[in-house]
Amino acid sequence: MLLNITYIDDLPEVKAMLLEASVKMNIDYFEKINPSRKQIFEYSDIVRSIFCNPNKIAFKFDNEFFETFKNLKVLC
What we know:
This protein is α/β, with parallel strands linked by helices. It contains 3 helices and 4 strands; from the N terminus they run βαβαβαβ. The protein has a 4-stranded parallel β-sheet with strand order 2-1-3-4, with helices on one face. α3 links the parallel β3 (49-52) and β4. The two termini are 14 Å apart.
């Protein structure tokens, strides 16, 4: 599953490209608008790829995050 972590001023072109890529790669795509750490951890078992702007999210990618997201293959 591809997760796009967005924020209010996200570019619609980026969302369109990610959706198109997910269709071509036959993977599920969804997005969350600036989720909290608790909200994002609910998806730790199913998310394989994350696309985001780390300067605009409400949490940090730290050891706990990577230990929780054991199936994560791509972080962009």
